Amino acid sequence: MANYFQPEIECAPLEKIRALQNELLPAQVRRVWENVPYYRKKLEAHGVTPDDIKSIDDLHKLPFMSKADLRDAYPYGLLAVPLSDCVRIQSTSGTTGKRVVAFYTQSDIDLWNDCTARAIVAAGGTRDDVCQVSYGYGLFTGGPGLDGGSHKVGCLTIPTSSGNTERQIMFILDLQATILCCTPSYAAYIGETLKEKGYKPEDIPLKVGIFGAEAWSEEMRRDIEQTLGIKAYDIYGLTEISGPGVAFECSAQQGMHINEDHFLPEIIDPNTGEVLPEGTQGELVFTSLDKKAFPLIRYRTRDICTLTREKCSCGRTHVRMTKPKGRSDDMLKIRGVNVFPSQIETVLMNNGYAANYQILVGRVNNTDTFEVKVEMTPDMFTDNVGEVQARRKVLEDGLRSMLGIKAKVTLVAPKSITRSEGKAVRVIDTRKI
Amino acid sequence: MSVNQVSVFLENKAGTLNKLTEVLATNKINIRALSLAETSEFGIVRMLVNDVFEATNVLKENNFVATLTPVLAYAIADEAGDLNNLLQKFTAANVNIEYMYAFAGKERAYMIFRVNDTKKAEALLKSHGLNSLTQEEISAV
């Protein structure tokens, strides 16, 4: 099975990949030095010039970049091409800090779409497939990323975006969608809804799912695969580097292949910044080798994972990363379970509500208390107490199935959640640990 | 004709009902009838006001979640036994009441009912000789 979109590079021998990286990195460093005053200042402060970077062996000489750099340089400070060469921005949700605004030239978009096309083809997608993209479209990279890849592969693309589950199901069934792209939690929700309606896995035309943009477990994968009767593939990415498709799972499902002809990965010790050898767990760092508009050099993702170059049975030669354990700085550990605010957001959004919430964690008698305040919306409200309670219960059940632990949902008045500098304070942790 | 009731979400804590009345007072909106349903965590205020449109606007502006609910209003004699007479007709028409509240005027008493299917219930009750009050009639009380 030749499930490759660009076999000449996806299966290239390591020497060929290295040669390409050795050619691209020095050129990219020189380009940002010449075009981005912010980078030049940063490199100068670090005592490095483009002359010091002759190959990827010199990568470690370059300074790291972090979210703080993106914040300092917001909005145009890291732009490496004239603004008139840019054709698109994408942006993050901004739940853990200032929004990231990333710029793209047309060639950046093409490169990104190639990456998601590789992911779709690796999952078995062809031009004969009907690919439903139920990731959100808009500023979020999920929808536009998979949409572009689906077009490149030549699938019939159904751009449903996220939400309106009834309509999602109608299109899956009526147009015989064979590929579903969305967040794993939304896939689980679509699956549950189909099950409640009495559809068995064999009644559902879907064959494959490509799920990413949030942390999910192997248990969740198995659940989704059983309910929808599909094979579920993981996809990884981040807006700062391009979006989904930075890495993707192949049929072997032993980690995700990083598209290292575009994105050069490293694993570092998150405390010391020291580069760690292959096979060691640490923080994932990316250097964008050929993006034009918004090329980040040694960007710290805060994702914790491991890299391996062991031969993969799928035939691809690109390095593989393990599923990240989650971003280090926004994770909460409640009753021993990892909880990400984004998961709570997903539950709210899957139920059609705005993500206006606050997580309160405390400790009573050595047990963590876990409460989620949700701002009441006109959609959620009726004059009937029982009905409002039932809707609250649906959210509690949704959180329980998403997180595996029980959360108490409290409905609060609109705009009552504390906001600082216009942004809601998402987590209040009063535990004294 | 059904009457528009304004239903408002309130957190169950001190001062929230007062905040609501303050908004209404500032905007010179008169409450004609009010009932409050509560759970341990939140409450729902249900009320009839003299200016429904203005009330919903100012509540929204002040970050209250409010919705309009159709309710049926009937006038009865303010004397022993007349609510019983009224409800016998509900029973005869097989109309189930979700909740109700009441207020007494100078000459008559007014009963407000929330039912499941307002239009259907109104027609059934009419066939039993009951005429519900219009928004204008209830405002003029």
What does it look like?
Chain A is an alpha/beta fold and 433 residues long. Chain A folds into 2 domains: 328 residues, Rossmann fold; 98 residues, ANL, C-terminal domain (GMP Synthetase, Chain A, domain 3), CATH 3.30.300.30. Chain A is built from 11 helices and 22 strands. In chain A, helix 5 crosses helix 6, helix 8 runs parallel beside helix 9 and helix 10 crosses helix 11. The model of chain A has no long low-confidence stretch (mean pLDDT 90). With 141 residues, chain B is α+β, with helices and mostly antiparallel strands. Chain B folds into 2 domains: 67 residues, VC0802-like (2-Layer Sandwich), CATH 3.30.2130.10; 70 residues, 2-Layer Sandwich (VC0802-like). Chain B is 34% helix and 38% strand. Chain B has 5 helices and 6 strands, in the order βαββαβαββαα. Chain B has a 6-stranded antiparallel β-sheet, with helices on both faces. In chain B, a hairpin with a 3-residue loop joins strand 2 and strand 3. Chain B starts with a strand and ends with a helix. The model of chain B has no long low-confidence stretch (mean pLDDT 93). At the A-B interface, helix 11 and strand 19 of A face strand 1, strand 3 and strand 4 of B.
What is the string of SSEs of chain B from the N terminus onward?
EHEEHEHEEHH
**How many independent structural domains of chain B?**
2
Number of helices of chain B: 5
According to DSSP, the number of beta strands of chain B is: 6
CATH class descriptor of the largest domain in chain B: Alpha Beta
Instruction: Specify the helix fraction band of chain B.
Output: 25-40%
End-to-end C-alpha gap of chain A: 53 Å
Query: What is the CATH C-level name of the largest domain in chain A?
Result: Alpha Beta
- Alpha-carbon distance between the two ends of chain B: 16 Å
CATH second-level architecture of the largest domain in chain B: 2-Layer Sandwich
Shape descriptor of chain B reads globular
Q: For the residues shown, what is the average pLDDT of chain B?
A: 93
Structural class of chain B: alpha+beta
The total count of helices of chain A amounts to 11
Strand % of chain B is 35-45%
Strand order of the largest sheet of chain A: 4-3-5-6-7-8-9-14-13
Class inferred from helices and paired strands of chain A: alpha/beta
Shape of chain A: globular
